[in-house]
Amino acid sequence: MQFGIFTVGDVTTDPATGRAPSEHERIKAMLAIAQKAEEVGLDVFATGEHHNPPFVPSSPTTMLGYIAARTENLILSTSTTLITTNDPVKIAEDFAMLQHVADGRVDVMMGRGNTGPVYPWFGKDIRDGIDLAIENYALLRRLWDEEVVTWKGKFRTPLQSFTSTPRPLDGVAPFVWHGSIRSPEIAEQAAYYGDGFFHNNIFWPTSHTEQMVNLYRQRYAHYGHGTPEQAIVGLGGQVFMNRNSQDAVREFRPYFDNAPVYGHGPSLEEFTTQTPLTVGSPQQVIERTLSFRDYAGDYQRQLFLVDHAGLPLKTVLEQLDLLGEEVVPVLRKEFANLRPAGVPDAPTHSARVAAAQEAPKEETQG
Length: 366
What we know:
Shape: globular
Region (Disordered): 342-366
Radius of gyration: 20 Å
InterPro entries: Bact_Lucif_Oxidored (IPR050766), LLM_FMN-dep_put (IPR023934), Luciferase-like_dom (IPR011251), Luciferase-like_sf (IPR036661)
Keywords: Monooxygenase, Oxidoreductase
Domain Luciferase-like: 1-294
Organism: Streptomyces goshikiensis
């Protein structure tokens, strides 16, 4: 199982100081956070994609390429790549290039995002959101899987004998997660292709997450990729820790109350009761995270949001120390002990290359 962090890259005023970082400071902080994630033994760093203030990560592959040069083991991912408004040709080329730069330590999470105005900024209509996601991803798969592509669709100009360059590293495209909070069509899409499904698992009650994950698992089996238990599932979550749980609540409350996403709404206590947000001691984070298995089943990737809402870099790095030293080692052991035989490991480039090399042998023997 893989453990890591994801960032949405918000530029938010720190309520403790009344100061907001500059865009430059926030970008540099995200780079430092990624390098710290590797230092403390996490597996994954993922960044969102946004094209509007107060968010800064408009070019994820630029950021991830920089991080690739300064890390050795960290898997580099997006927590959203906008399949609806990005050109699938550019996605194919950008992420194949990143694969080569990072020696395969790359995957990608497709999503539609949660910012409606982004569609016209890139010449698209939000009413076509689901159709764009379906058509663009179908083309992206062909661009990665086929050397020469001739294609015609509804939303972009046709392609005639087109080859995307560079080709995916070792002939194996980046592993794809389809991220969604509320759209069953995206769970269906992930299942159809046999890709991973990532549920953000931050804003909604557990009953909703359970429903979405179960839909994906059932449809994964329906399309013949394996049993429901063999489907590849990832979950998000947000945590804030202090060794004393009361101190954690006291420290985090002003950040929660002023957060751009969930501030000025339900109280911190209401939100932590109704959603997976966990504010407390490392042990409380361990217990809460282990409980995700009760409704999502055995899953492959857990990403935590730790740098949202104006938290200063020093505090975020302290959170990563707690994750790496006290939380993730216990979670690795406990999830491994609970994991039945037959549940697949989290996907890696090397494992997928090996599987691709084995496939022709199995077909020959069959």
